[in-house]
Design a protein that fits this description.
By secondary structure, the protein is an alpha+beta fold. It folds into five domains: 183 residues, A middle domain of Talin 1 (Up-down Bundle); 81 residues, 2-Layer Sandwich (Beta-Lactamase); 93 residues, 2-Layer Sandwich (Beta-Lactamase), CATH 3.30.450.20; 130 residues, Reverse transcriptase/Diguanylate cyclase domain (Alpha-Beta Plaits), CATH 3.30.70.270; 249 residues, TIM Barrel (Alpha-Beta Barrel), CATH 3.20.20. The protein is built from 30 helices and 27 strands. Helix 3 packs antiparallel against helix 4. The two termini are 150 Å apart. It binds ligand C2E and magnesium ion (2 copies).
Length: 920
């Protein structure tokens, strides 16, 4: 019950406060203050009381005595003054003395009044009043005397008697007032004595009270402090399981609770640490067991106290009885820090740490891989060094502080520096300064892109920042490249062979001329094309051809003025720009001179060669004011001149362009015709004079133009050749002709014309083979007609192709013999089966100054070479008779039949050979 009531008390805020040590000290202080305050107050009251008594002793008693005495003195003076009055007769003096007596009387009355006022006792008051009335009576007697000389002696006696009475009364008064003072003194001494005792008692009481309070405080504070101290000692002593009283509500209670909590924390901490230590120990053991490092503990005596499995593995046999080699290795390896090579070739790194007991722990790491990598790295570095030294570029690698880290040999070579002039550690500016001494043009603050040295070298410098804040600069000697670039720049505007301006430069010249063209002055453009340059090239070889072109270029350049321009724009095509042309005749003069100059013979590589030139001329501004148009006009004029008058020149005329347009139109029609197969093959019989019957047909191509009707092969074949269309077209004719001929009687041959252009195509032989195979026509029935131009272009290749064709069993004829070069060397270069005499010779056969001798010569040539001769264009019986007489083998011409469509072929055969066999 008691404890509960206490708990309730403590649970209230006031109770909780009162339970604290702070409150208790405060209460003790308060009570002790009350005690000492009360004691002090009591002492003050007592001292005041005593002081009052002392004051009254002085104020009341002594003052009262003094005034009583003053009264006595005043009365004595009154008696004396009265006595002096009796001695004088002077009235004035008598009056004066009388006044003095009255004044003294007043003073006496006043002193007496004060004495009465200060008197403490009734008897003293009564004595004072008696004095007062006595003096008044004395004075009344004195006044009653009148003339003093007349006063009787008994009256004087009465007066003296009264005076004595008064003196006695005054003495009484003095005595009474002195008695009062004594009384006060006594009272004061008594009061002091009693106060002293009371104060001592109170002080003792206060001391006792303070002792009680101190004891109470000690009881309330020391107990918990002792408990706390014991608890702390127990905790310090490691006794963490002892209980600590924690029910106190004061600060010590809270201290004990904190200590209990602290003890719990320490206990938890220690438990945790124990656990951690145990786990660490386990881990350490595991780590040692599974460690990739070998760990060996050697004690102070030098014995191996411990070696983990890896150490045992490193030092094979260590720890096994009787095996000393492992231990020897181990001891040797552990004798010092550093690297050690085991007998099995592996490398160990040993690092030793001293132990407290005087031994040491050695950790052995297997660094074989590291060593291997190191060796590889060294090798790589060597290679890198080799690569750096053999680089075509100079190289400087700088770190973030712009200090040189790597420099290769080439750098020194480029700048012509002595060995070791530039070494790692130098700053970039120092390197540049050194390089400058070695020929550098200047020390640049930043790397230039191109550095041109005084010795003419050109160095391209490139700088790239590296990831670590440094940079790498590469130096390349681009002198050669620079020259090459300059050359390329030259070549971009010039022809390599002749050094003349090329088309680009020409166009610039023409545009410049257009810009300068005035009203009075124009300029002329000459398009030049060498005549028959290609045969020269083919005959004498490209070297001679090139020489010829250079010579022509030189001659052309020599013909023109400084302000004019000669350009080469194609193989044998040149353009001359003549400036400041006032009249078209000026251009004609130059054109003629150019033709004359070019056609003069050349001596090249010990050979004399001649070449002609054809020129197309256009004059600006009349013919146009744009570069493109003027060049086109000159080309049109040239094409016209080529067609009409080789070795001459033609001015451009507007209708030339129209013809060119027509040709373009034909071109497109031809392409379209090829796509739509708008061609047809006609056949013209070849009559054998020996057997007197048709021995075969020549396939002749026909193109029926939708608008223009039949167009002569003589017109469109050259165009097809030019456009390269002759190859597919020729193949189509071949297949068509073979297909048709395969259905004819076995003895009939089919002759197919083959263009020179087809010989430049590799597919000719395979095309013929395929045509024979697909149509089933035997090779011996096919005859291919070629012209001399085929052999002129590329004799070697052509001959090879002809032999391949021959290999297929095909026969080969020389067509239009006598119109071209008619060189016997061509006839000898290949064993032709037949020579076809051109119709132009046949035509003139029966004329007055005919060409019989040529025909005769050709026929006999064929006979002697074992070749069949066929005469073309036989139109008359006379021609036939002459040819028969000359011994010609075969004839062909309108006399027998014009070329006919395939449908007509059977009729032709029937007519000349009789219907011997039916044609499918
Ligand atoms: P060519 O090979 O010399 O053919 C003979 C030419 O003479 C043919 O002209 C033919 O019609 C013509 N002709 C035949 N007999 C007489 C005659 O008695 N009097 C006259 N005045 N002419 C006669 P065509 O068909 O106009 O062919 C001309 C040239 O076109 C051919 O000359 C040949 O070189 C070429 N040609 C024709 N067809 C082809 C072909 O399929 N391929 C190739 N590459 N050229 C062909
Ligand atoms: Mg022919
Ligand atoms: Mg012919």
């Amino acid at each position: 019950m008691k404890a509960r009531a206490r708990a309730l008390r403590l649970s209230s805020p006031v109770g909780a406060f009162v339970a604290t040590i702070k409150a208790r000290i405060f209460i003790a202080f308060f009570v002790m203050s009350l005690l000492s305050g009360g004691l002090g107050f009591y002492a003050i009251v007592a001292i005041a009381h005593v002081g009052d008594l002392v004051g009254r002793t002085y104020d009341q008693s002594l003052m009262s005595i003094n005034y009583a005495r003053a009264t006595a003195a005043d009365f004595a003076k009154m008696r004396a003054t009265f006595a002096r009055q009796g001695l004088t007769r002077d009235k004035a003096a008598i009056a004066k003395l009388d006044a003095q007596i009255t004044e003294l009387h007043t003073t006496l009355a006043e002193d007496l009044t004060i004495a009465v006022e200060r008197a403490q006792s009734d008897r003293a008051v009564r004595a004072a009043l008696a004095v007062q009335s006595g003096v008044a009576a004395w004075d009344d007697i004195r006044r009653s005397f009148g003339d003093l000389s007349a006063v009787r002696p008994e009256r004087w006696d009465a007066l003296d008697h009264q005076a004595d009475t008064i003196d006695a009364q005054i003495d009484m008064l003095v005595n009474y007032t002195a008695g009062d003072g004594f009384t006060f003194r006594q009272a004061a001494r008594t009061a002091v004595g009693s106060e002293l005792r009371l104060n001592m008692a109170a002080a003792l009481l206060a001391i006792f009270g303070s002792g009680v309070i101190a004891w109470l405080l000690h009881r309330r504070i020391r107990g918990p402090i002792v408990s706390a101290s014991l608890a702390a000692q127990r905790i310090a002593g490691g006794h963490l399981d002892d209980s600590i009283p924690t029910d106190g509500r004061d600060e010590l209670g809270s201290l004990l609770r904190s200590m209990a909590a602290m003890r719990d924390n320490i206990r938890a901490m220690m438990e945790r640490e124990v656990r951690q230590r145990q786990s660490a120990e386990r881990l350490l053991t595991d780590a040692l067991q599974s460690s990739r490092e070998g760990v060996v503990v050697v004690d102070a005596t030098g014995c191996i106290a411990f070696a983990n499995p890896m150490a045992l593995k490193f030092f094979e046999g260590l720890g096994t009885a009787g095996n000393s080699s492992g231990e020897t290795n181990c001891r040797e390896a552990l004798s010092r820090d550093g690297e050690f090579r085991l007998p099995n070739g592996r490398w160990l790194r040993v690092s030793r740490s001293a132990t407290e007991g005087g031994g040491f722990v050695a950790v052995c790491s297997d660094i074989s891989v590291e060593k291997e990598q190191e060796a590889k790295l060294r090798e790589t570095n060597l290679r890198l060094d080799a690569a750096l030294d053999n680089m075509s570029q100079g190289l400087c690698l700088y770190d973030a502080d712009h200090r040189l880290m790597v420099v290769n040999r080439r750098y020194g070579q480029i700048y012509g520096l002595p060995a070791n002039a530039v070494t790692p550690g130098m700053t970039a500016m120092e390197v540049l300064a050194v390089s400058s001494n070695g020929g550098h043009s200047a020390v640049p603050s930043v790397y230039p892109v191109i550095d041109e040295l005084p010795n003419g070298k050109v160095i391209a410098i490139e700088r790239r920042n590296t990831a670590d804040g440094g940079f790498v600069a590469t130096f390349e000697d681009v002198t050669e490249r620079r020259h090459a670039e300059a050359r390329i720049a030259f070549l971009a505007h010039h022809d390599v062979l002749t050094g003349l301006p090329n088309r680009i430069a020409l166009e610039q010249q023409i545009n410049a001329s257009i810009a300068q063209t005035g009203r009075d002055q124009g300029f002329a453009i000459f398009a030049l094309d060498l005549d028959d340059f290609r045969p020269i090239n083919d005959t004498f070889g490209h070297a001679v051809g090139d020489e010829l072109l250079v010579a022509v270029a030189n001659r052309l350049s020599a013909c023109v003025r400084e302000i004019d321009c000669v350009a080469r724009i194609g193989a044998d095509e040149f353009v001359v720009v003549q400036r400041a042309v006032e009249r078209p005749e000026d251009a004609a003069v130059l054109a003629r001179r150019l033709i004359d100059v070019v056609k003069a013979p050349y001596v090249l590589s010990n050979q004399t060669v001649s070449v002609g030139v054809t020129i197309g001329v256009t004059v600006a501004p009349g013919d146009g004011m744009s570069c493109g148009k003027l060049l086109k006009n000159a080309d049109v004029a040239l094409a016209r001149a080529k067609a009409e008058a080789r070795g001459a020149f033609r001015y451009f005329e507007p209708d030339m362009d129209a013809r060119l347009q027509a040709r373009r139109a034909l071109e497109s029609d031809l392409r379209h015709a090829l796509e739509t197969k708008a061609f047809e093959v006609y056949y013209q019989p070849i009559y054998s004079l020996g057997s007197e019957r048709i021995c075969g047909f020549e396939a002749l191509l026909r193109w029926k133009h939708p608008v223009r009707g039949f167009i002569s092969p003589a017109e469109f074949i050259p165009l097809a050749e030019e456009l390269g269309l002759i190859v597919p077209l020729g193949e189509w004719v071949l297949v068509q002709a073979c297909t048709d001929a395969a259905r004819w009687p076995d003895g009939l041959k089919i002759a197919v014309n083959v263009s020179a252009v087809q010989f430049t195509s590799a597919s000719l032989v395979s095309a013929v083979r395929d045509a024979l195979r697909s149509t089933g026509l035997p090779g011996r029935r096919l005859e291919l007609e070629i012209t001399e131009s085929v052999l002129v272009a590329n004799p070697g290749v052509t001959t090879a192709i002809l032999h391949s064709l021959k290999g297929l069993g095909v026969r080969v004829s020389m067509d239009d013999f006598g119109t071209g070069y008619s060189s016997l060397s061509y006839l000898r270069s290949f064993p032709f089966d037949k020579i076809k005499i051109d119709q132009s010779f046949v035509r003139d056969l029966c004329e007055e100054d005919g060409t019989d001798f040529i025909v005769r010569a050709v026929i006999s040539l064929g006979a002697s070479l074992g070749m069949t001769t066929t005469a073309e264009g036989v139109e008359t019986e006379a021609q036939l008779a002459r040819l028969r007489a000359e011994g010609c083998d075969e004839v062909q011409g309108y006399l027998f039949s014009r070329p006919v469509p395939i449908t007509e072929v059977p009729n032709v055969i029937a007519r000349w050979n009789g219907a011997t066999r039916a044609i499918a």
